[in-house]
Design goal:
- The protein is an alpha+beta fold and 174 residues long.
- It has a domain of 120 residues: Gcn5-related N-acetyltransferase (GNAT) (Aminopeptidase), CATH 3.40.630.
- 28% of the residues lie in helices and 35% in strands.
- A hairpin with a 4-residue loop joins strand 2 and strand 3.
- It is globular, with a radius of gyration of 16 Å.
- It starts with 8 loop residues before the first strand and ends with a strand.
- The mean pLDDT is 89.
Length: 174
Amino acid sequence: MITLKGEHIYLRALEPEDLEFIHSIENDENVWEISNTQTPYSKFLLKQYLENAHKDVFEVKQLRLVISSYDNNALGMIDLFDFDFKNSKAGVGILVKETGDRLKGYGKEALKLLTGYCFTHLGLHQLYCNISEDNKASIKLFTNQGFEKIGLKKDWNKVNGSFKNEYMFQLINQ
């Protein structure tokens, strides 16, 4: 049985009511580095995005889910991107919004749920992620979930005028 429900959190589709939450994340300059964002997003654009969020992952090549507590508090988001049906792979990104909610296992549980969904329901063969070499928490999260470091991309991202290296991690469904 496919489930996106864990012990402490569940993953759910985006809803129109998530506009303020998504707006606050997309316009938080502290997370722009991990999302490769360069400019703020308007509520108008995000509302349009939400209106199309119902489209199938096979059509739009991405899937964004809200990480939610059982008291319906939106904690963060987890994304599939660059969904490649032909080659049976997709990228994964995750963000727990509030620093006070981090390191509580929500990201671990969300990643485990999404990984199971991808391998059993979507039939993917592999998942990958890109992590800045100084993002120790994300490296630990993905490594602990079985992702293996497969490469280093030198001077990959320019952040505040200097270049940073980025690791690529991969999880192959055995």
